[in-house]
Amino acid sequence: MNKTIPGTRHPLHGVDQTRRIEQTAAQALPAHTLMQRAGLAVARLALAIAPHAQRIWIACGPGNNGGDGLEAAIHLQRWGKQVVVTWLGQTESAPADTVAARLRLQDAGILVESMPSGDFDLCIDALLGIGSQLREPQGLMADWIRQINASGAPILSVDLPTGLHADTGQATAVHVQASHTLNLLTLKPGLFTAQGRDAAGTVWCDTLGLELNVLTALAPTAYLNAQPIKTRRPHASHKGSYGDVAVIGGAHGMTGAALLAAGAALYAGTGRVFVGLLNDQSVTVDVRHPELMFRPIQSLDFSAMTVVCGCGGGQAVQPVLCDVLSSPAPVVLDADALNVIATDNVLQTELLARCARQAVTVLTPHPLEAARLLGQTAQQVQSDRLTAAQTLAQRFACTVVLKGSGSIIASPDHLPVINPTGNGRLASAGTGDVLAGMVGAELAAGKTGFEAACRAVYRHGALADTWPPGAPLTAQLLVLGGCDTACR
Ligand SMILES: NC(=O)C1=CN([C@@H]2O[C@H](COP(=O)(O)OP(=O)(O)OC[C@H]3O[C@@H](n4cnc5c(N)ncnc54)[C@H](O)[C@@H]3O)[C@@H](O)[C@H]2O)[C@@H](O)CC1
Ligand SMILES: Nc1ncnc2c1ncn2[C@@H]1O[C@H](COP(=O)(O)OP(=O)(O)O)[C@@H](O)[C@H]1O
Ligand SMILES: [K+]
User: Fold this and answer.
1) Which residue has a Cα nearest atom 8 of ligand 2?
2) What whole-number distance in Å separates Cα of residue 263 and Cα of residue 486?
3) What are the strands of the beta sheet with 180-184, ordered from one edge?
4) 2-223, what's its fold?
5) What is the average per-residue pLDDT within 330-336?
6) Buried b (16+ CB within 10 A) or exposed e, 362-378
7) Separation of 372 CA from ligand 2 center, angstroms?
8) Rg of the chain (C-alpha set)
9) What whole-number distance in Å separates Cα of residue 170 and Cα of residue 165?
10) pLDDT higher than 70, residue 488
11) Cross-referenced NCBIfam families, in alphabetical order (predicted)?
């Protein structure tokens, strides 16, 4: 059993692949073995996270997730714990492995209680796993979820927090909020995006003795984003070795967005950073960042630089988008560049043409921007973030970063990646502009669109994860912190 190590490129498997893996694994083993191994793994982790727990409630559901809970109860009782087992299943209708576990529970002399009573030192949520359907839990199931959440005890969820969907990270209104989740056989993508991060707590995985070739025979659904490898700056290098970035944005009243993106590109190691403002104010210097060079947009040579376009762009970005899209420059399209493209068929055709000639392009929408591009609502995007990001990447044939909790990086040529870094402290104005600048810096240094997006998104989130507790975290401070993680 392993704690999920942050920064490792773990494969993630959805429900369909997990079921196929489970079938292959089960066929090679005596009947009920996998569930017995699952129960033992749950019991072991229970001891590890709550070694002094005496009274343990194991809430078991009607399917095989419940069976895992019954198996765990047998071990915990054997190890001297007082187990309280409640079960929503029936021997006549439960799956075969679970019926076998129920009989073993009986043989061990453990009674199934109709209701949990008293206080508990640990709750084990074995109500629903990958068989969970996105319908609101009712009756006893809903009552027990609420009781688990209100118990005040550590909560260990078996395979998934009940109510969370394994593929999407969408949760029913009533769902378990675990302190630990033990994934069985495979890590599931839904734990790392949308509501998954909040529901799952610390994620563990036990592959139940699975042969590696069974796991690797199927392509995963996605990967967890890996920590980027740091590269040293060669001694014999100069500013031209690290590329130029031009930030186009900052319409009237939104200059700050362009400056944030430009500052982020600078601190992430770009050789030279230019700013083309979309307002008629004659800003010629940013005194905090005198390295930035301000230029009229028409004077910028897009053929020789990476362009980050749209940060604080407003509608004013529209007239320059045609030139940006038709240029050979690697381009990051953010914020209002995306909003304008979403409403303009001509620009959409330009974007498609650009991607067809394989000009490097990264779109960095938040869920509402993605929804506008897809003609959906933000809620629809959030209900299946992996699919939304992949659909956008396919539609425009380029790299897409769907931002938010568990940002998704998708491209037509790669399996999608879910980013494990970042936290709610990033949810403040301007942090997306900082990300756009960081992606621009990676492109200017010669990375592909997908690599640049993966590296920048990881670093951006890691900055927030290592930020001193209690210290304010604003977009501008994030810019300044960017030099800590820049590779070059
Ligand atoms: N069979 C085996 O050998 C193994 C099974 N495993 C466990 O089995 C789980 C999958 O088991 P199942 O396929 O039986 O699925 P689950 O046990 O996750 O759920 C299926 C049951 O829950 C009910 N249900 C689904 N959604 C509901 C909702 N919203 N409200 C109320 N009831 C709902 C279904 O009608 C069905 O009875 C895994 O998550 C894992 O915990 C693992 O232990 C690996 C080995
Ligand atoms: N809860 C969270 N966990 C991880 N990252 C987050 C979270 N909330 C916001 N972020 C990140 O913060 C940034 C916000 O970007 P965006 O919504 O475009 O804001 P703005 O337009 O104000 O800059 C994105 O990179 C997003 O992924
Ligand atoms: K569960």
Assistant:
1) 427
2) 13
3) 2-3, 202-206, 180-184, 155-158, 122-126, 55-60, 82-87, 112-113
4) Rossmann fold (3.40.50)
5) 98
6) bbbbbbebbbbbbebeb
7) 17
8) 25
9) 5
10) no
11) yjeF_cterm, yjeF_nterm
| Residues framing ligand 2 (Cβ under 6 A) | 335, 366, 403-405, 407, 422-424, 426-427, 429-433, 435, 460-461
| Ligand having the closest approach to the CA of 125 | 3
- Find tokens 């996270």 and name the residue: 49
From the CB of 26, is ligand 1 less than 6 Å away?
A: yes
Q: What is the pTM of this model?
A: 0.96
Q: What is the dihedral of CA 331, 335, 338, 343, to 10 degrees?
A: -150
Which residues contribute to the annotated binding site?
Answer: 64-68, 125, 159, 162, 257, 312, 366, 403-407, 432-433
Q: Is the pLDDT of residue 280 over 90?
A: no
Which ligand 2 atom is at minimum distance from the Cα of 257?
Answer: 23
Q: CB of 35 closer than 6 A to ligand 1? A: yes
CATH of the structural domain 240-483, one choice from 3.40.1190.20, 3.30.1330.10, 1.10.8.60, 2.40.128.20: 3.40.1190.20
Evaluated on CA atoms 480, 482, 485, 488, the torsion sign reads negative
Pocket test for ligand 1, best of 64, 144, 145 (most atoms within 8 A of CB): 64
- 3-class secondary structure, 41: helix
Average pLDDT across the chain, whole number: 95
| DSSP at 468 | P
Ligand 1 neighbour 482 (Cβ under 6 A):
no
Q: Among residues 356, 5, 15, which one has the least CA distance to residue 165?
A: 15
Residue boundaries of the structural domains of the chain: 2-223, 240-483
**In whole angstroms, what is the distance from residue 119 CA to residue 92 CA?**
31
- Chain segment 50-77, per-residue pLDDT in tens: 999 999 999 999 999 999 999 999 999 9
Question: What residue type is 115 in one-letter code?
Answer: M
Confirm or reject: Cβ of 451 under 6 Å from ligand 1. no
Q: What CA–CA distances, in Å, run from 57 to 77, 81, 96, 167? A: 11, 10, 23, 27
Ligand 3 mean position, distance from CA 136 (Å): 15
